[in-house]
Amino acid sequence: MLVLNGKEVSKVVRASLIPRVEKFKLSTGRVPHLAVVIVGDDVASHVYVKNKKKACEAVGMTSTIHAHPASITQKELNDLLKKLNADNGVDGILVQLPLPKHLSTDEVLGIISPEKDPDCLTFKSVGYFFAGKPIVSPCTPAGIMSILNHYGISVAGMNAVVVGRSNIVGKPMAHMLMEANATVTLCHSKTKNLSVHTKQADLVVVAAGKAHLLGKEDFKQGAIVIDVGMHGTGQGQKLTGDVRFEELNGWVQAASPVPGGVGPMTITTLLQNTCLLAEKRASQTL
Ligand code: NAP
Q1: Which of 97, 129, 232, 240 is the most buried (most CB within 10 A)?
Q2: For this structure, is 52 an active site residue?
């Protein structure tokens, strides 16, 4: 079984970003800049945000963290986002989700400029994406496409099954696979006999958010399995996915592990997208 090593792919992609950042710096006198807005004191969210900043800096980009207490009002948050939209030195704006309950995510996503949306979450960015004219593509599915591409796996003509229909993973994943000429089935919690669908697939992307949901008996021999699930993210916990990876060796053709599969490529794609947005704005192709 080929292990689809997202950590390795991530290293390759990040190395390719360094000269791009240098080139951008030479032509503009500054480096691509990701502004990250975080509200409240959720420990895991603060760790994610710090990791994003570290990742930016490792490829020569810059990242500023705008941390605000949960008491911030919607107007204050909206004003901050408008300020970042107007700041010519900011290329990407990321609001760490979820937000505290009194704040509207929809309102936030209505304000962030699509030209500065590296997560492809704003309604305009999503519209462009599903119209087949992406400004950038959502990080997790785009990262998965990069992994497949790195290993020379073409999905054209494949029967692909995506398990999960969230806005950030399942739906955009199905769309990207379809755009790459796979025949796609999208499954969810109301799907009857999930295994009947996954078993006929050449490629299965599992993003159900249910630990150890699928194993060997759910895949056909020689299939390709991508596990998006992430469980046990707390301190000292063992990270696992939606798939029982240890059952797959000798049965499937290729599979991505957790950890070390999709996760590292999500953050790397965020860097790629921020760099791309910076380049597009600088060359006024946006
Ligand atoms: P989500 O918003 O909770 O969506 C889960 C989806 O899976 C829903 O569409 C749900 O169906 C479906 N589902 C749930 N149980 C199912 C079952 N038993 N059979 C079939 N479908 C089922 O989750 P998400 O944000 O897409 O994330 C999914 C997983 O990926 C989570 O573990 C998350 O932590 C992880 N994740 C990882 C990364 C990464 O970078 N590695 C990035 C994002 C997310 P309904 O629509 O019918 O409810």
Answers
A1: 129
A2: yes
What are the backbone dihedrals phi and psi of residue 216, each rounded to the nearest 5 degrees, phi first?
Answer: -45, -45
Alpha helices in 87-151 (DSSP H): 105-111, 123-130, 139-150
39 part of a folded domain? yes
Question: Does the beta carbon of 257 sit less than 6 angstroms from any atom of ligand 1?
Answer: no
165 touches ligand 1 (CB under 6 Å): yes
Domain range spanning residue 53?
Answer: 29-114
What's the whole-model pTM score?
0.96
Residues 64 and 168 grouped into a single domain: no
Q: Which atom of ligand 1 is nearest to the CA of 210?
A: 15
State both tokens at 116.
């500065």
- Could you list the pLDDT tens digit for every one of the 286 residues in the chain? 999 999 999 999 999 999 999 999 999 999 999 999 999 999 889 989 999 999 999 999 999 999 999 999 999 999 999 999 999 999 999 999 999 999 999 999 999 999 999 999 999 999 999 999 999 999 999 999 999 999 999 999 999 999 999 999 999 999 999 999 999 999 999 999 999 999 999 999 999 999 999 999 999 999 999 999 999 877 788 999 999 999 999 999 999 999 999 999 999 999 999 999 999 999 986 5
Question: Looking at the DSSP assignment, which residues form a beta bridge with residue 264?
Answer: none
Burial class, 284, CB count within 10 angstroms (exposed 0-12 / middle 13-18 / buried 19+): exposed
Indicate the top mutation candidate among 165, 171, 186, 233 to test ligand 1's pocket, ranked by most ligand atoms within 8 A of CB. 165
Q: Please indicate whether residue 268, judged by its CB atom, sits closer than 6 Å to ligand 1.
A: no
Residue 48 pairs with which residues in a beta bridge? Answer: none
Single out the catalytic residue among 119, 202, 227, 242. 119
Q: How far is the CA of 236 from the centre of ligand 1 (A)?
A: 23
CATH code assigned at 69: 3.40.50.10860
Tell me if residue 119 is catalytic: yes
